[in-house]
Amino acid sequence: MTITLNHTIVPAVDNETEARFLAAVLGLSYDGPNRHFAPVRINEQLTLDFMTVDEPQPMHLAFDVDPATFDAAVDHLRANKIPFGNRPHDWTNGLTDHPFAARGVFFRDAAQNLYELMSPE
């Protein structure tokens, strides 16, 4: 059997707000809470389950995305004045060149989780 990641828990200040935030950036739907989680289906294999915690410890989540998804995400970030940048230590510089992909960005949510989007072109 091939091993795949099924889901991961993402710490949140407010699980539904942060689930909606990431779903909007990635152009995904958010269907509402499931018990104490706010799940966002990333693809057929992976769900991110946002969970409200008292003191969230930020994590880094990196995604390979196609060029159209990348463009739409950057457009959304710009339109909503969400800071982004091309380096994890400089994630507010507004640049999209990336050290390991043709284009890429980093941005944070309210819990300070660091998201990374990388596009091959």
Automatic annotation (TrEMBL):
SUPFAM superfamilies: Glyoxalase/Bleomycin resistance protein/Dihydroxybiphenyl dioxygenase. PROSITE patterns: VOC. Residues 4-120 form the VOC domain. InterPro entries: Glyas_Bleomycin-R_OHBP_Dase, VOC_core. This is VOC domain-containing protein.
